[in-house]
Amino acid sequence: MKDFFEDLGKRLSETAEAVTAKAGDAIEIQKLKAQIRELARGNAEDLMELGQSIYDRFENGEELDEASKGLCEAIASRKESIEEYENKIEGLKGACECTRCGKMVAKDMAFCPYCGSPVTEEEDIFEADDLAQEAREEAEEAEEIVAEAAEAAVEAVTEAAEEAVDAVEESVKEETEE
Fold it and tell me: Is residue 105 in some structural domain?
């Protein structure tokens, strides 16, 4: 029985050493994986910075290769969509678009916080649009009246000129007959 306990003790000791070695390996593996993640994050940050510099060149109108240009155009398109969605959200919240700078302004603001211009209520905008439409219609009517008057004046002048020519011809004819 003594041999049994000695073997058991040896085996427990060996197993403990193996478990300790495995635990040490596991810790070392986790440290290495953490270093890999840190390096990968650094690469991701550098790639983002590189991508941003290429996109900045695209926005400045610099020449890019086709692949970069395509990616930049896709990014620009998504940026526009994001802005549209943000404007819709602001509209649903009751905000309106500043007529001067185009930014969304909260409904309870009297002045645009971006450019300082007075915020016009949507009702005022619609009223202004209606007034502008009425002014355009009145201008069209005035143009028609002026065109008709000009046409009548041209006809009157033409008729008067023809009568004057006839009178001059008649006068010349009478003088030649005498």
Answer: no
What DSSP state is assigned to residue 105?
A: E
Distance CA 164, CA 157 (A): 10
Q: Which are the contacts of 57, defined by CB distance < 8 A and separation ≥ 6?
A: 64
Report how far Cα 160 is from the mean position of its chain's Cα atoms: 62
Domain assignment of residue 52, given as a range: 1-63
Task: Indicate the pTM of the whole model.
Answer: 0.42
Report the candidate in 98, 54, 94 with the shortest Cα–Cα distance to residue 76.
54
Q: Is residue 30 part of a domain?
A: yes
Q: How far apart are CA 125 and CA 100, in angstroms?
A: 13
Report d(CA 169, CA 175) in Å as an integer. 10
pLDDT along the chain (178 residues), means of 10: 73 77 80 88 88 90 88 89 83 79 83 87 59 80 80 78 79 73
The answer to whether position 43 is within a domain reads yes
What is the count of structural domains for the chain? Answer: 1
